[in-house]
Amino acid sequence: MSIDIRGVNKSFGDFAALTDINLAIPSGKITALLGPSGGGKTTLLRIVAGLENADSGTVSIEGADTTNVPARKRNIGFVFQHYAVFKHLTVAGNVGFGLSIRHRPKDEIAAKVNELLELVHLEQFADRLPSQLSGGQRQRMALARALAIQPALLLLDEPFGALDAKVRKELREWLRELHDKMHVTTVFVTHDQEEALEVADNVVVINSGTVEQVGPPATLYDEPASPFVMGFLGEVTTLGGQLIRPHDIVIHTDPRPGALAGTIVRAQRVGFEARLHVRPEGAAADGSSDVLVNLTRTFARSLGLHEGEQVWLEPEDGATTLPAAGVSASGRPAPVLGSPRREGEDVAGSLTSKDVAGSLTDCRCDYAPGSVRLHGSGCWLA
Ligand SMILES: Nc1ncnc2c1ncn2[C@@H]1O[C@H](COP(=O)(O)OP(=O)(O)OP(=O)(O)O)[C@@H](O)[C@H]1O
Ligand SMILES: [Mg+2]
Questions:
Q1: How confident is the model at residue 325 (pLDDT cuts 50, 70, 90)?
Q2: Bridge partner residues of 156 (DSSP)
Q3: Which residue, judged by its Cα, is nearest atom 24 of ligand 1?
Q4: Looking at ligand 1, which atom is closest to the CA of residue 189?
Q5: Rounded mean pLDDT of the chain?
Q6: pLDDT value at residue 83
Q7: Are 176 and 183 contacting, i.e. CB atoms less than 8 angstroms apart?
Q8: Are 313 and 259 in contact, with CB atoms under 8 Å apart?
């Protein structure tokens, strides 16, 4: 079931939650809506589901405009961001709920519920209450419930958001396998880039109510369209005026033509990685120009790297880079106001209330809808 979203706008009062969204969601694939909190992901999903009306624009499902089709007639399975279970019904009762209200025969419901509980590996818990399940089990139950009505479209809003990292990882592998068996067109909201890159065929990056980029995971990672996308999909740093990923930097212990000379000012071990902060020669002592370099601990050990040592840095061949103009040296992406401006400068007019809906960091700014006054060297949207 393909979905075509054209020119969708949605405001809550004077706050624009979605601005001119145009998006084609392919049939039979998993599409991830990825973006920071407050970006508009849930709002967009609710509009597709018919639980919310767009102010303007259209959503077509399989080529047919759905504007006047109520949610219950859209044949959509929905798993909400926050658990929505019927506490007084057993697991089997929850899974079969959609079929019961459609007055399906009892034996058909029982057979379907059994099939689904096996699929989500909960067959032994059919008679339990949801409160007697773990968080991961409850989310699998919610998925089975959404699948029971044989939806043509499955919408999942942060289905694993409330779970710990290990369970999330297991469930996302499981979701991918489930999808490969069932091929239901699935739209899946997450703010976790690893989850999106691992599970989805297609990723839509949404920020501040607009679509930043759409593409398969590898394209987004290798060819980000903006500093925001690059920074959202992984860590970035700045090397010689270019944004680059810290593991795409080659480090040498002897001078190389064209390489940037610097000193290791900090070396950390995080799991299998060594993270080095390299201060370029003549750079500010406050660390604002430090280049972050990530390498495996084995490689770091083989070079014998340590704090205080002089090194030379260059981008690896084929590394993804973007011009860093207007991006802070720490690699913080998506400057709201472009390159640093004069302290106290009034930049009214260049921002809308939507721009400042996220959290502004790295600056001391007074901001009100439509106007921002800076008291620092830059202003960045987290
Ligand atoms: N019913 C509402 N009334 C007013 N504002 C709303 C309403 N629903 C959402 N918003 C606002 O719209 C913006 C987008 O919200 P939305 O829930 O779509 O974000 P999200 O991307 O799903 O975020 P999260 O990752 O935190 O779930 C937010 O700033 C939110 O405060
Ligand atoms: Mg949300």
A1: low
A2: 79, 188
A3: 37
A4: 22
A5: 83
A6: 61
A7: no
A8: yes
Q: Is the pLDDT of residue 262 over 70?
A: yes
CB neighbour class for 241 (10 Å; exposed up to 12, middle 13-18, buried from 19): exposed
**Orientation of helix 106-119 relative to helix 135-148, angle to 10°:** 140
Which numbered atom of ligand 1 lies nearest the CA of 46?
Answer: 18
pLDDT, position 121: 87
Give 264 Cα–ligand 2 centroid separation in angstroms: 40
Atom of ligand 1 nearest to the CA of 191: 25
Pocket of ligand 1 (CB under 6 A): 12, 15, 17, 35, 37-43, 81, 191, 357
**354's tokens:** 């939507």
Per-residue pLDDT tens for 80-102?
766 667 889 999 999 999 899 88
pLDDT > 70? residue 365: no
pLDDT of the residue at 374: 44
Query: Given its phi and psi angles, is residue 187 left (phi above 0), alpha (psi -120 to 50 degrees) or beta?
Result: beta
Kindly give the distance from the C-alpha atom of residue 161 to the centroid of ligand 2, in angstroms, as a whole number. 10
